[in-house]
Amino acid sequence: MERRIVQYRPNNAPPAWERVADEVRATISRAAPLTSHRARDLLTALTRLAVFADHQGLPADARRWLDPEMVEHFTTAGCTDVKKSCRANYRACLTAIRVAVYGPDLPGGRPVPLSASDPSEPYTGTQGADLWAWSGGQSTEELRQGLRLLLALGLGCGLDTSEVIPLRGPDVRVMDDGACVLAIRGKRTRLIVCARPYERTLAEASQRAGTSFLFRPNSFARGSNTVTDLVYRASRDPRVPRLVMGRCRATWLVERMNVPIKLPVLLAAAGLDSLHALSRLLPYLQGVAADEARTILRETP
Question: Of 16, 122, 210, 266, which residue is the least packed, with the fewest Cβ within 10 Å?
């Protein structure tokens, strides 16, 4: 069994596999599955979670991967290409790994029922503008500034939750022409030019933060719930969709794919090393008229 685990390699392994492989194999070995079929199920589930976590900028640490909140995020935002039953099976496997390796007392809660809706579906129509108006109508300045900064980082820069949390004021550089360039920390280190409508919000947030954290500079506990805690404190409006950073990032990606933008530029700006993450967004792209498509295909060298 041990040899089977050590030799495991997923089909069509993405580049991230090399960064997480050792930790995946070591964790499944500690879980000690009794049959080869069970080992394969656990390896598959943990590999998908590990690659997803790597794309979120998390280190190769199984304790971080198997945090209940991370598992819930993965089963909703990271499994949009599989059926609801498969997502439920992944979650069951990951829970079993967590219990086997770290014991039943690892902090967590009751999993919420899986929804068939896609939490990474892009916002459409006026939903982005609705969220902006909603954020400005909150009861405190902390909520107004925090929510609008999240929209600037999500809709304007394409960041996910894990990339927002470690940012600091000096990571924003305001150029002479007013453009804001944002330096992303972590494994997916890169520079992003903020979309013009959100430049002022980002620049003002950087000025307020100084050398402290960009988002919630007065909060020194930087946990995985740093973002969600602020969003859940905000008053809800049934006419406005919930603010979800995954949906903001998806919206940012789709808007740029519709421009269109050259793929190397988009992949670099998004911090992606393959096109796999973009495939789920294809249904949301704008169609092209037959005449326009004919011209593009004929005239492109």
Answer: 210
